[in-house]
Amino acid sequence: MTQTLSGKVALVTGGSRGIGAAIVRRLAADGADIVFSYGSSTEQAGRMVGEVEALGRRAVAIRADQAVGSEVEGLVKAAHGAFNRLDILVKSAGVFITGVAGDPATDPAALDRQLDINLKAVVGAVRAAIPLLGDGGRIVSIGTAGASHRAAFPGIADYVASKAAVAAYSRGWARDLGARGITVNVVQPGPINTDMAPKEGPVADILKGMSALGRYGEPEDVAAAVAFLVGPEAGYITGATLTVDGGLSL
């Protein structure tokens, strides 16, 4: 594989599992040194560091709670300090918490935490990264398919709103940062086979039936889209959303 990211440093939040881990592997395979955050499992993070180093790249894992603004800011600064540069920021960390409007059984604290992680952490990370990113840098956030125009099931209003807000912010940031050649984009996955949403899960057949391709995607499908957007061939793409959902949102 051509190492199109040789000499670059990437920070990936939520990089020890699922989609985030696939992004870490792909960017490392493309030549980038990696800093990634993780939430709880030091052992899992250590294995990911080993995988990156086996590809011949450097890796640093940093524990950070994405719901705590000071930890998000500290993560970005530590990522820059690890290799004395920062070229790529990928915001992959996220949570999915449901709750039907007006349902007294809904946990408002959990919904608030979802907004903290899915939206406020993205805003905080980008703001912290702007003065540290080199000109021509790349910012990519992981959204969700159809967030800007549909809610496919009851109970997901807070989730899709948090992701739609990230897409709106990204369009605004693309305007703000264009003069520096920094691109800002969103990748919107559909059903992706991870431990949080396995392709044999309880709603898998419904989601497969709703997609044009009739199947789940793999984390590597999302990672490929991210790799394209942070690579040299996507320098004229900014403020865009790239949907990777097998035709779910058609």
UniProtKB/TrEMBL annotation:
InterPro entries: NAD(P)-bd_dom_sf, SDR_fam
Family matches, as Pfam families: adh_short_C2 (PF13561)
Sorted UniProt keywords: Oxidoreductase
GO function term, MF aspect, one: 3-oxoacyl-[acyl-carrier-protein] reductase (NADPH) activity
Top-level EC class as recorded in UniProt: oxidoreductase
Enzyme Commission numbers on file: 1.1.1.100
Family affiliation: Belongs to the short-chain dehydrogenases/reductases (SDR) family.
Protein name: 3-oxoacyl-[acyl-carrier protein] reductase
Organism: Azospirillum picis
